[in-house]
Design brief:
Layout: H1 2-16, H2 22-33, H3 51-54, H4 58-66, H5 92-103, E1 133-136, E2 141-143, E3 150-157, E4 164-175, E5 180-188, E6 202-208, E7 214-215, E8 220-224, E9 229-236, E10 243-253, E11 262-263, E12 265-270, E13 276-277, E14 281-291, E15 296-304, E16 309-317, E17 324-330, E18 341-342, E19 350-351, E20 356-365, E21 379-380, E22 391-398, H6 401-421
Bound molecules: heme C.
């Protein structure tokens, strides 16, 4: 009920003033949702700071926002968990405004309505405050003026001599901002099981333009063991000029010897090694199952497939099998964008011991997939981007049975209260 009211008020506001204009209606949306990438000196194809810059792209903007391809945010918000801490997507109302603007002739409007320019501070500061530990690539990566996108791995010793717990993580570009599409970091340790497919190690954190730090709640942390090496996986993108790039991982740590109450873990679910995707075929489906041995609170979801990946859904099969619940679906998976979807606190799934996480991955190995390098090949499992994978990274922490019951109860009371005030 509230949503409907809100929508109609918003629409009346637009109609009452007659036309939708750039300066009044569209510029504020672009500032908030697009300019973090679409401004000079980043990897995005064009700048959208001014009317003059945006106007030639009006049609393309209409198409990309209406299809929800821009801004990059590909999780389906109508199934499973619907609220996220890092949601950058446009509301239906914002999309309607942009579509109306373009359909009405993409007018500029009164220059006096133009909001002051947005300021960006990404390269010169750590959003989480000064890190206790900074791990940086020992050597700049040189990105040629022209060339295909590159995905490279660089392993760097973190220099830790004792086990510590992480309280906040941030990754940022320190050089060559405009060629760094994204970076994922993972931890590798000599005690890790050497099963041959743990090439990049345990996922730690991902960087993309505009992303701030991951700060864990007080009393929750992630273990980083002495001797850990950090694997940086970089997606680099040529921009017409040879550019040196470098990135750094910053960690804020709990004091030596401190053990947080909740030990946050990031783990991959799924990833079946028997992937077998026939040539020239769309909608190839694979299923994988992982059982939770202890109660858990789920914090985030990040599917990982390659160029043929199409969609990825995760559901919870509760113990006994009589209740099945969809948790998340990324229905327009895009390999170029490694996005972590962080569940809002009040919707983080609370799962009892014995829950089976069921991950389904879909692939398009036909020629209609424009990212498909060769539809005539049968594709199997592998780390190379021309092979496929079918897993998802999840972050969670375990609960005792007592904590689980208590948190389920708290959630129920909150929901009951919210229902009363509707
Ligand atoms: C996180 C960075 C990022 C954000 C935020 C973002 N874009 Fe993009 N955009 C890109 C990149 C990079 C591309 C190039 C294609 C790709 O990599 O997907 C692109 C491509 C596009 C294109 C197609 C350009 C072409 O060459 O045809 C349009 C139009 C567009 N974006 C509009 C928008 C609008 C409008 C918004 C905000 C509502 C937005 N983008 C938000 C990074 C971003």
């Amino acid at each position: 009920m509230r949503t409907v009211l809100f929508l109609s008020i918003g629409l009346t506001a637009v109609c009452a003033s007659g036309q939708v204009t750039f300066t009044k209606d569209v510029a504020p949306i672009l500032q908030e949702r697009c300019q973090v990438c679409h401004r000079p000196d980043t990897f995005a194809p064009m700048s959208l700071l001014t009317y003059e810059e945006a106007r030639p792209w009006a049609k393309s903007i209409r198409q990309k926002v209406a299809a929800r391809e821009m801004p990059p945010w590909y999780i389906d918000k109508n199934v499973g968990v619907r609220h996220f801490k890092n949601d950058v997507s446009l509301s239906d109302q914002e999309i309607a405004t942009i579509v109306k603007w373009v359909d009405g002739g993409a007018l500029k409007g009164d220059p006096k309505d133009m909001p002051p320019p947005r300021r960006f501070d990404d390269t010169d500061q750590w959003h989480m405050g000064q890190p206790d530990l900074i791990v940086q690539l020992p050597k700049d990566q040189i990105v040629p003026a022209k060339g295909a996108d590159q995905w490279i791995d660089v392993l760097v010793d973190a220099g830790l001599t004792d086990d510590r717990y992480i309280r906040a993580i941030e990754v940022k570009t320190v050089k060559g901002f405009k060629v760094v599409h994204h970076v994922t970091t993972s931890m590798k340790h000599e005690d890790d099981p050497d099963d041959g497919d743990n090439v990049q190690g345990t996922f730690l954190n991902e960087y993309a333009l505009g992303k701030n730090a991951d700060v864990f709640p007080e009393g929750a942390g992630r273990l980083i063991k002495a001797g850990t090496k950090i694997n940086f996986n970089l997606h680099l993108h040529s921009v017409g000029q040879e550019t040196a790039a470098n990135v750094a991982l910053g960690l804020k740590l709990y004091p030596a010897g401190y053990k947080p109450h909740y030990d946050e873990t990031t783990e991959k679910v799924g990833d079946p090694k028997d992937l077998d995707i026939p040539a020239n075929t769309d909608n190839v489906r694979f299923d994988a199952y992982n059982t939770l041995t202890r109660p858990a609170r789920l914090l985030s979801f990040q599917p990982h497939m390659h160029n043929r990946g199409k969609a990825s859904c995760m559901e919870a099969i509760y113990p006994g099998g009589h209740k099945v619940e969809t948790l998340s679906c990324v229905s327009h998976y895009q390999f170029a964008w490694h996005l972590v979807y962080l569940y809002a606190d009040d919707e983080q799934p609370l799962l009892p011991a014995g829950t089976v996480l069921h991950l389904t991955s879909w692939y398009d190995n036909s020629s209609t997939n424009k990212f498909n390098p060769d539809p005539d090949n049968t594709i199997t499992y592998g780390q190379r981007t021309i092979d496929e994978m079918g897993g998802a990274w999840i972050s969670y922490y375990n609960l005792t049975d007592e904590e689980y019951k208590q948190q389920v109860q708290e959630r129920k009371s909150k929901q009951a209260l919210a229902a009363q005030t509707e």
